[in-house]
Structures are given as structure tokens and as C-alpha cells.
Write a structure and sequence with these properties.
The complex is a heterodimer.
Chain A: H1 2-17, H2 20-44, E1 49-50, E2 53-54, H3 55-72, H4 76-86, H5 88-94, H6 99-129, H7 138-169, H8 173-186, H9 198-204, H10 214-220, H11 227-256
Antiparallel strand pairs in A: 1-2
Helix pairs in contact in A: 1-6, 2-3, 2-6, 3-6, 3-10, 4-7, 6-7, 7-10, 7-11
Chain B: H1 2-20, H2 22-46, H3 58-78, H4 84-90, H5 94-98, H6 104-112, H7 119-135, H8 143-171, H9 178-186, H10 198-207, H11 215-221, H12 228-255
Helix pairs in contact in B: 2-3, 3-7, 3-8, 3-11, 8-12, 11-12
Classes of the chains: A mainly alpha, B mainly alpha.
Chain lengths: 263, 261
């Protein structure tokens, strides 16, 4: 256990060493959220609400979605793919730890860093400029906290899977790019799921993507209330468990048929 | 001439590597299509809830998006340098580039090109023709010429911005993640800039002039006379920003100290 916690710490410190680019990151994210704010204001026109979300709730939704993304987003799929291509993974496999767990911990270290040095200050700056609604309700914050932790786990599990697939495809850039696009669209990052036509919403029920961004953002902007919150968090937990299965299967297969291409 | 033959040789090599990883190439083409579909879906879903976006109709917004895809395809084919910092500076790959007698930026571009991104031109044109025929637009004899000029201008604007961002690495050799994040900002140039407030409109016009890759030039083909001035500026903005970025690059390279092993 200690070695995994050490990994979180090391990655955190690594990020700290390169912190200057996070200041520019906060500015870029702020421009991004600002542009979305005006785009959505134009889309709302004079309307009071669309699909039960007011303009202010929508702004809060967008801002939280992007700031939460800073926490759950990571590039471990690219790291794994590179280590496979360069052959470094062979060395990693004989080291006395679980390779996938180690990658997850590294991602967590990165996420914690971004949460404190990026999302929190970024959110503060954005809330000064744009009208947003922060809940005074402590339980909303608590549920949001639990929910983004699950978002992190689900997103990381999907990243691990795309990373492992490099063992079979050898070159995996296309799949990783497709994955990023799919997650941006179907996770509710750029559009709340409730805005989609009914059949599309029904189809998305079958995928874990909306549990990455839509659920925490809806909880935070209080678009979900009462039992909806509990149900959403339960579904997140269930998806975390379901996704363990394909990871284990893929990882088992991958170790058997490893081809090292270089290094 | 020499540059052309080098370019062709790189294209040949590129084909070989692509064919080695055939399944990846197919997935990559599909992911490009998916990427283009995502933005279209955004427009379609949004217009399921509203009729006009400050006076612009759904088909007009779709037309702008179709136009945007064409310069963007040229940009992503030849200026795919979003991981320049990590690949060339942090890993020290630039050392290898600098020992060769061809301009360093030209080599980086050749090494990172992604020819399959050119499919964006086809999807872009298809979307433009679809939206254009819905709007009843007609094609004049000078339209294709201006279209080519605007596309070149737009692609150079994009290239100029991203090359300038890449040159930041020469001065600070630490890792930066600015470029991937910047991709999102590029999308906002596709929407009518009059919806944004003054500051953002100014940024999208003069500082990160992404509006010249989308709404401004496309407004010309949509016969929006009030934007003609901006539309005709497109090729000049492209040349200006591209020249500026080459200048920054040439100065930057002299500041480069090998960082990698």
C-alpha cells in the first residue's frame, strides 16, 4: 500500500515542478468557459429555461463540467501506449507492483494536483466574472465530491482499457483520439444529456460515459434532486464494478501475447 | 525543387508506416469522422431547442461549420504539432533536426504530417453544399477563387497561432500543456462573433484570430454584407500571423539548448 501512496506523492510533486503552465491553463479554461457562457446565453435568447435548466444553472453546469474535467482527465492511455511501443512495459511488469494500479495512482496524483492548483482557483476566478449558483447545502457538496471520485475511477478505467488495447493494435493513436471525442460528446461535457432527443438518451443509458461528466455537473448545479442523486451515484458505483471485468480480461490476454516493438 | 522532392520522399515513407499499422489507420479515419460529427451534433441538438442564434439560422451555422472544416483539414494535415514540446524539446529530438541542412520547422512539419486528415476537405465541402442548397445559395464565377484564398488564409491563421505557441518551448524548456487546451478555443471562431461580449470578440479577431477561420470568411458566401470587410481581411491575417510565427521560430531556435538526453 505504501508504495502506491508514494506514487501519488511523486506524481503530485512532478506536476508541481511544472506548475507554470497551469497558470496559463487557468486563463485558457476561463476563456473557454466565458465563450460557452455567451454561446449559451445566445441559445437561451429570452427563454426562462430549457429542459428544466435555467441560464444560471447552465453556466454553473458548464463551469463545473470543465473544472471537474481537470480532475478526472488524464493521459495514462497515452503513457501506457508509449511504454508498450518502446518496450519499457517489459521492465514494468517484473517490478514488484501491479502495473495498472500504479498507473491509476499516478493519475490520481495528477488529478489531486489539478484539483487544488487548477480547478479550485479557476472556479474562483470564473465565479467572480459570471453569474453562477453555488449551493449553500453541504450535502450537495458532499455528493458532488463522491460523484467526481467515481467519475475519476470510470474515466481512468476507460483509459486503462484503451491503453491495454495497444497490445493488440500495436499503434493506438486513432482509438485514443476516438475515445476522447466520444467522451467529450457522450459524457455531457459539451451538452447536458437531457438536451438530446429521447432515443439518444435511451441509447446512452447503455454506456458509462454520462457517469463521467453529466452526473457530477447535474448534482452540483442541483439539476438532480432527492432520490435522483442517490440513483445516479449508485449507477456510478455499479459501472465502476462492471468495468473491472473487461480490464481484467484484456490484461490477462495482453500479457500472454505481448510483442515488444522496440527498446 | 529540393524541398518538393524531400516532401515527396516523406510522403512515401509515411504511406509505408501507415500501411504497417493498417487497423490503426482505419480507426483513425473513423475517429476523424466522429470528431467532425460531434460538432455537427452539437449544432443540431442546440437548434432542437431554439430557432435563431442572434439572427443566424441553423443552416447558416451549419454552413459556417462546413467551411471551417476545410482550412482546419489543411491545418491538421500539415501542422499537427500539438505535442511539439514533449516530443522535440523535453525528449531532445530537436538536436537531431538541427544537425540537418533543411529548415527545422519544415522538417518538424514533414515528420508530423497526417495525410489522412485531408478527408476533412470532403466532409467540409459536403456539409457546405448541403447547407448551401437548403439556403438557396448560388455560386458565382469568383466564388471558387475567393474560397481558395480564404481557405489558405484560414489554414495559415491556425498554423501561425500554433507555431507561435510551439515556440514558447524554446524560451521555457519545461513541459507545457497550452496547445492541447487551445484546440477548444479554436471552435468558438465558428459561431457568430456578435454573440460574445467585446473582450472575447476582440480576442477571437485580433489576438487568437480564430474567427477568420470560420464565421468571417463564411459570412461572405452567406451574403452577409456587413461582414465583408472582415471576410476580405482573411488572407492578409493568415499571411501576417504565419510570417510572425516563422519569425518567432527563427529567433526561438537560436535560444534552444538541448534539454533531453
Amino acid at each position: 500500500m505504501a508504495k502506491y501512496i508514494e506514487m501519488i506523492r511523486i506524481r503530485f510533486l512532478m506536476m508541481l515542478a511544472y506548475r507554470t503552465n497551469y497558470y496559463s491553463g487557468i486563463i485558457i479554461y476561463s476563456i473557454n468557459i466565458a465563450a460557452y457562457y455567451f454561446l449559451w446565453s445566445a441559445i437561451y435568447g429570452g427563454k426562462e429555461d430549457i429542459q428544466g435548466l435555467s441560464v444560471i444553472q447552465m453556466t454553473t453546469y458548464i463551469a463545473v463540467a470543465w473544472m471537474a474535467r481537470a480532475f478526472y482527465f488524464n493521459n495514462i492511455d497515452r503513457e501506457i501506449a508509449l511504454e508498450i511501443k518502446e518496450g519499457k512495459v517489459a521492465v514494468e511488469l517484473i517490478r514488484p507492483y501491479q502495473y495498472l494500479n500504479m498507473k491509476t495512482m499516478a493519475a490520481l496524483g495528477e488529478g489531486i494536483f489539478r484539483l487544488f492548483f487548477f480547478s479550485v482557483p479557476g472556479m474562483f476566478i470564473v465565479s467572480l466574472i459570471f453569474p453562477m449558483e453555488f449551493s449553500a447545502n453541504l450535502s450537495t457538496w458532499g455528493f458532488f465530491g463522491i460523484s467526481i471520485l467515481f467519475s475519476f475511477i470510470i474515466n481512468t478505467q476507460i483509459n486503462l482499457m484503451t491503453g491495454i488495447i495497444t497490445f493488440f493494435l500495436f499503434n493506438n493513436d486513432g482509438l485514443m483520439r476516438a475515445k476522447r471525442v466520444v467522451i467529450d460528446l457522450f459524457s455531457g461535457l459539451i451538452l447536458p444529456i437531457s438536451f438530446y432527443p429521447g432515443w439518444a438518451q435511451a441509447a446512452m443509458e447503455w454506456f458509462p460515459f454520462q457517469y463521467i461528466s453529466y452526473v457530477p455537473s447535474m448534482i452540483f448545479s442541483e439539476g438532480f434532486v432527492g432520490s435522483e442523486v442517490w440513483n445516479a451515484i449508485m449507477m456510478q458505483a455499479i459501472w465502476c464494478l462492471i468495468l473491472l471485468i473487461p480490464i481484467q480480461v484484456l490484461w490477462g490476454l495482453a500479457k500472454k501475447q505481448m510483442v515488444i516493438q522496440g527498446g | 525543387m529540393r524541398h518538393l522532392s524531400i516532401f515527396l520522399q516523406y510522403v512515401g515513407q509515411y504511406m509505408k508506416t501507415r500501411l504497417t499499422y493498417r487497423s490503426d489507420m482505419v480507426v483513425e479515419l473513423l475517429s476523424d469522422l466522429l470528431f467532425q460529427a460531434v460538432n455537427l451534433i452539437f449544432i443540431l441538438v442546440v437548434f432542437g431547442h431554439t430557432d435563431l442564434l442572434s439572427g443566424w439560422s441553423r443552416d447558416e451555422i451549419i454552413f459556417i461549420y462546413g467551411f471551417f472544416l476545410v482550412p482546419f483539414a489543411f491545418f491538421s494535415t500539415f501542422f499537427n504539432i500539438w505535442d511539439f514540446n514533449e516530443r522535440y524539446i523535453v525528449k531532445g529530438e530537436l538536436d537531431r533536426i538541427l544537425t540537418r541542412p533543411i529548415h527545422s520547422l519544415f522538417q518538424v512539419i514533414l515528420e508530423r504530417m497526417e495525410l489522412e486528415s485531408m478527408f476533412g476537405v470532403i466532409t467540409g465541402l459536403a456539409i457546405m453544399f448541403y447547407a448551401g442548397s437548403n439556403l438557396g445559395l448560388t455560386i458565382e464565377w469568383y466564388d471558387p477563387i475567393l474560397f481558395i484564398l480564404f481557405v489558405i488564409g484560414g489554414a495559415l491563421v491556425y498554423a501561425g497561432i500554433f507555431i507561435s505557441l510551439a515556440t514558447v518551448s524554446f524560451w521555457s524548456d519545461s513541459r507545457t500543456a497550452i496547445m492541447p487546451m487551445m484546440y477548444n478555443i479554436g471552435n468558438f471562431g465558428r459561431y457568430p462573433v456578435d454573440i460574445y461580449n467585446q473582450v472575447i470578440r476582440y480576442v477571437l479577431t485580433w489576438i487568437l484570430p480564430f474567427a477568420f477561420v470560420g464565421v468571417y470568411p463564411a459570412a461572405f458566401f452567406l451574403n452577409k454584407t456587413e461582414w465583408y470587410g472582415y471576410a476580405f481581411l482573411t488572407p492578409f491575417m493568415g499571411m501576417l500571423f504565419f510570417t510572425l510565427s516563422i519569425f518567432l521560430w527563427n529567433v526561438g531556435v537560436t535560444k534552444y539548448r538541448g534539454a533531453g538526453s
